[in-house]
Design brief:
Blueprint lengths: L3 H15 L3 H9 L4 H16 L1 H11 L6 H16 L4 H14 L6 H13 L11 H9 L3 H11 L1 H8 L7 E4 L5 H10 L4 E3 L7 E3 L9 H4 L3 E3 L2 H9 L7 E4 L6 H10 L4 E6 L2 H13 L5 E5 L13 E7 L11 H6 L2 H19 L2 E11 L8 H10 L3 E3 L7 H6 L4 E3 L2 H4 L5 E7 L3
Parallel strand pairs: 5-6, 5-8, 6-7, 8-9
Antiparallel strand pairs: 1-3, 1-4, 2-3, 9-12, 10-12, 11-12
């Protein structure tokens, strides 16, 4: 008989101690589990990760001495249930004790029980947060201190608190040409799936509850797909017109390529480049599921200039590899990032931008995008590019909603989860001079 708590513990330890990706590790862990148990395992793992630094802050006051990794995992899950989940105190404590015994730590079961019971008794007297703004916000919202310090310096403590308190946006669907938004809405209504139109992209359908979309007939048939409003906006910013020749330079897994084809209504040609063969296969799989034609998928390094492609495209999209710090639905990712990693990514982004600049025809458009809030990867990257590429100027942002046009500056705009109800996404539109 499967034990959901043990499955959750093993997955959590692999993520926190062995560097496994939460989404991939949980996909394996949940395979074959009944839906209710799978939901609980996913909930306790993601809840623990989302509040990890605060949980450790609490445990530091109650769990004295050196704690073995497996016991630390049991305690972390226990505190997550006590403080953040709808689990009765007795159940959280007793099941944590049972979990200790199941993993061969019977001698420490009493210790775990004592720590968790003490936290229950002192729920209204938990350890205070530090006074320093960066320290306080780091622990309160469980984000690395170095990153919080950077955000506070850029945006101030109040804005940073609201940003870090933002929740991941709901799942968003869009139609794929020739299927229409009206047909998608009718399909969701017929399936009794509640939704509302997107705030930034009205044709997007934001689901109001969790749905296993992959089981829906319309999804399997390729009539619609999952795509965030921010990803859709980036494609709109390219202003694709029928007959255009477009390049999606960092295209995996293919969602933006497919949406560009949707906007072209199949009349035009797109090249989709990807460095790694296995990710190139993901693009092909996406395009096949959505019945997209007129796309050439190529295994290419977008950072390496190809003279044969000079000025070959009307518009180029660089959805650059980035730190991903704007994707709040992946709490494990924030702990794996570092200042050095952002510096390395900025170097790669620069190489890709420099190479792709040559592929834009005179008068054409270059759109740069990331799913991060790091200024080094965003505004700093674009300002440096413009200083070195005088043939480009900031473009208009007319394709964006009025609310974002007002915030845009010098052809750039930053989306924030707490303001825009989408990922923390950056986009810039640059236009190449004629002649």
């Amino acid at each position: 008989m499967t034990n959901p708590r043990r499955i959750a513990l093993e997955a959590l330890l692999d993520i926190t101690d062995a560097g496994a990706y939460a989404n991939l590790r949980l996909k394996d862990a949940l395979a074959g589990l009944p839906q209710r148990e799978a939901h609980w395992v996913s909930a306790v793992v993601y809840t623990t990760l989302d509040h990890l630094l605060y949980i450790d802050h609490v445990l530091a006051a109650f769990a004295k001495g050196r704690v073995q990794p497996v016991i630390r995992g049991v305690l972390r899950m226990g505190v997550a249930q006590l403080l953040y989940m709808d689990v009765p105190d007795n159940a959280a404590c007793n099941e944590s004790v049972n979990l200790c015994k199941q993993v061969g730590k019977q001698k420490l079961a009493g210790y775990v029980n004592g720590v968790l019971r003490a936290i229950c008794r002192n729920r209204d007297n938990l350890p205070p947060l530090p006074d320093d703004p960066a320290d306080r916000l780091s622990i309160q919202f469980s984000w690395p201190r170095w990153l919080v310090e950077e955000y506070v310096a850029q945006y101030g403590a109040e804005f940073t608190a609201a940003l870090l308190d933002a929740k991941a946006p709901g799942m968003t669907l869009r139609a794929q040409y020739p299927y229409t938004t009206e047909e998608l809405r009718a399909s969701l209504q017929a399936a009794d799936i509640p939704f509302h139109p997107g705030k930034l992209v009205p044709e997007a359908c934001v689901l109001e509850r969790g749905v296993d979309v992959a089981r829906q007939e319309g999804f399997r048939a390729g009539r619609y797909t999952v795509q965030s409003e921010s990803a859709m906006l980036v494609c709109k910013l390219l202003a694709p017109q029928k007959g255009m020749r477009l390049l999606d330079a960092c295209a995996a897994p293919g969602g933006k390529t497919a949406y560009l084809s949707h906007l072209l209504e199949g009349e035009g040609h797109i090249e989709a480049w990807e460095l790694h063969p296995h990710r190139s296969a993901l693009i092909q799989k996406t395009l096949e599921r959505l019945h997209v034609e007129g796309v050439t998928v190529q295994i290419r390094d977008a950072a390496q200039q190809d003279p044969a492609k000079a000025e070959a495209f009307d518009a180029v999209l660089v959805d650059a590899p980035c730190s991903g710090l704007g994707v709040f639905g992946k709490p494990d990712a924030r702990y794996a990032k570092s200042d050095a990693l952002i510096g390395a990514l900025a170097g790669i982004q620069k190489q890709i931008l420099d190479a792709c600049a040559g592929y834009v025809r005179p008068g054409g458009t270059l759109v740069y995008a990331t799913c991060t809030i790091s200024r080094r990867e965003n505004e700093g990257q674009i300002r440096s590019f413009l200083a070195n590429h005088r043939e480009f100027q900031p473009g208009n942002m007319d394709a964006l909603p009025t609310s974002l046009q007002k915030r845009a500056k010098d052809g750039m705009v930053q989306l924030f989860p707490h303001l825009d109800h989408t990922e923390g996404f950056f986009m810039a539109r640059l236009v190449k001079a004629n002649g």
